[in-house]
Amino acid sequence: MNPQYDCIVPVSGGKDSTYQVWRILQEGFNPLCVTAPTDQLTPLGRKNIENLKSLGCDYIEFSVNRAVRKLINRYAFFNVGDIQWPEHLLIYTIPVRAAVLFQIPVIVWGECPQREYGAGRPEDASLKYFDRRVLEEYGSLNGLRVSDLTSIEGVRHSDLYLYEYPEASDVEALGLKGIYLDNYFPWNGISNVVISQSLGFQTYHENILGTIANYENLDNYVHGIHDYLKYLKFGFGRATDVACNLIRRNLLSREDAIQLVRVNDGAYPSSYMDRSLDNILAEYSISNEEFDSVCEDYTNYDLFLQDTDGCLIRRPDGSPCLGGDYDNFHAEP
């Protein structure tokens, strides 16, 4: 066991992880903060990471081979419709790798996603621990496994060490437990913002594309693509996620939420923060035409309005309008 650190705190520099570190320090613990960097880190994301480091903690950032990561981004986008697939995996595997490497038997995650966002089995809303099962069920792997990645030209098994969950024997020998902070302290995204801003965390100067807030998804230019594909697959995006959280906490009425979501959810990501879609896609050698083709492939037509010829009815920005029980829900007023 490592006598220097009480726990690992996985961090991104965002409002929630800034609050996590502050809370852990307030309780008198000495954390090792661990970051798995985003796909395309924004300048504001870097500023917020540097701010978090100033709170008074040791910090380690693992940076995987960028050339290999780009190959995986591209492969996952075309094969499972998730351009952020490497990030979604690494944010879980890297902290566990670090725990085994430094022999730190506790990882303190923030909120339990199944509880916060209502995803997964009902019984998992009361999850106490994060383990390999949670990663494999809820880690957004979309049926893709690390072992599949060696089929990508230019990717070797030796490139994938940080993408793989450690051996079960190593985890068990350490007695590793991944716990959720929201099992011990009240969790509220709005209060997390207020506390984090008082500690130097910076928000964006306007609402982030596809949502109704300016305080999250600030660190990765690829977020807009991910949220748009989510909208095409499931009929709701990040604006709905945020609105539902605010409704559950009695901070927003359902009627007002509908109006806000109607205007903001599922926006076509022609740009994100200060970067154009062209430039974002160029990192992975993906053209705009290829992007639109993949979006078409992953669109659930049953969710969206169609004309008499079966073509999607679209908003001015090019994103489709929801249909069915949500008839015209996202149409321009």
Q: How would you sum up this structure, described in words?
A:
The protein has 333 residues and is mainly α. The protein folds into 2 domains: 7-189, Rossmann fold; 208-326, no CATH class. The protein is 41% helix and 8% strand. The chain contains 13 helices and 8 strands. The strands form 3 sheets. The chain has a 3-stranded parallel beta sheet with strand order 1-2-3, sandwiched between helices. A 3-stranded mixed beta sheet has the order 4-6-5. The protein is globular, with a radius of gyration of 20 Å. The model is unreliable at 325-333 (pLDDT under 50).
Query: Quick one: how many beta strands?
Result: 8
Tell me what the CATH architecture of the largest domain is. 3-Layer(aba) Sandwich
Amino- and carboxy-terminal Cα gap: 60 Å
Gross morphology is globular
Portion of residues in helices? Answer: 40-55%
Average pLDDT reading: 91
Order of helices and strands: EHEHEHHEHEHHEHHHHEEHH
Tally of DSSP helical segments? 13
- The CATH C-level class name of the largest domain: Alpha Beta
What is the strand content? 5-15%
Unreliable parts: 325-333
The largest β sheet comes out as: 3 strands, parallel
Structural class: mainly alpha
List the domain count as a whole number: 2
> Cα-atom Rg, whole angstroms?
20 Å
Strand ordering within the main sheet = 1-2-3
> Might you state the CATH topology name of the largest domain?
Rossmann fold
